[in-house]
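$ ./design --mode recover --in tokens.txt
reading tokens...
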């Protein structure tokens, strides 16, 4: 009985407080301050240790669970490439570290409009190559991300493939933003989090002079062949549902081992409520299983 009430309460909170904040009319500096406050409710477990580091001249946050380490996951935070940080995502990353046993690296990649494309993928690639340079094998590395961060994880894998670099063991995407042209946005009866006007503005700020159809900006429009096993989790109550389903379809067409999970009546990146909402905890546990299952021994 408690979980349905909690789910309804969280949905109302998203609708009343988060969605109005993500409006194109709210000044970006204010949005950045508000999102830092909003993520304070997403608290990591106490047995995960966080520390700052620098990899490839990119500041990162490390999340290390107690017990033996099983691999290393690079996690890219969401925020439309214009808001968010490693610190805002300590909650979801902390639980993912605990559930997977992986050390997690969260890059503080540069944000638009101060640093438009290709700053974010440049930073992502620098972090990955720095880990290889420290002696980690690609088979012990995995990629994950939410929203824009999910798209960035895909773009990084595509860039690594094009540059002849070894690919990670898997990719995990939570509500990935994969088509910044927004030509096929889903229209749910209820959208508790995202505002299409805001994502349109974010896409314009991030793409700057580049066409949004460029596959390194909208990876669903690119060649996904050769990418590692891919898990996609998405809620049915979000405008990015089609981004996820189209990604799964294109990945399958290109021969990628892909799993798509649509979680009914849940919203954009609902996994941030892990530790509170049981459905979020279960989804994150499934993602942890996908990550660890593909790591090299």
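writing sequence...
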């Amino acid at each position: 009985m408690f979980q349905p009430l909690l789910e309804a309460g969280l949905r109302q909170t998203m609708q009343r407080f988060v969605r109005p904040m993500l409006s194109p009319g709210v000044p970006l500096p204010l949005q950045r301050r508000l999102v830092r406050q909003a993520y304070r409710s997403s608290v990591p477990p106490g047995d995960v240790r966080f520390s700052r580091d620098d990899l490839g001249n990119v500041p990162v946050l490390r999340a290390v669970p107690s017990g033996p380490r099983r691999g290393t996951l690079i996690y890219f935070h969401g925020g439309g490439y214009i808001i968010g940080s490693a610190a805002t995502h300590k909650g979801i990353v902390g639980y993912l570290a605990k559930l997977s046993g992986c050390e997690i690296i969260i890059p503080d990649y540069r944000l638009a409009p101060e640093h438009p494309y290709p700053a974010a993928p440049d930073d992502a690639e620098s972090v990955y190559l720095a880990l290889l340079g420290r002696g980690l094998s690609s088979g012990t590395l995995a990629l994950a991300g939410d929203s824009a961060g999910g798209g960035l994880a895909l773009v990084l894998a595509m860039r690594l493939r094009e540059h002849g670099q070894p690919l990670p063991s898997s990719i995990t995407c939570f509500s990935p933003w994969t088509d910044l042209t927004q030509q096929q946005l889903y229209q749910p009866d209820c959208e508790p989090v995202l505002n299409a006007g805001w994502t349109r503005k974010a896409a314009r700020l991030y793409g700057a002079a580049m066409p949004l159809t460029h596959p390194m900006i909208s990876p669903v429009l690119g060649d996904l062949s050769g990418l590692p096993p891919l898990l996609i989790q998405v809620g049915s109550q979000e405008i990015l549902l089609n981004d996820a389903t189209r990604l799964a379809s294109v990945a399958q067409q290109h021969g990628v081992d892909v799993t798509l999970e649509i979680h009914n009546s849940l919203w954009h990146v609902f996994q941030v409520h892990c530790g509170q909402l049981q459905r979020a905890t279960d989804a994150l546990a499934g993602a942890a299983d996908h990550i660890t299952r593909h790591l090299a021994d």
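exit 0
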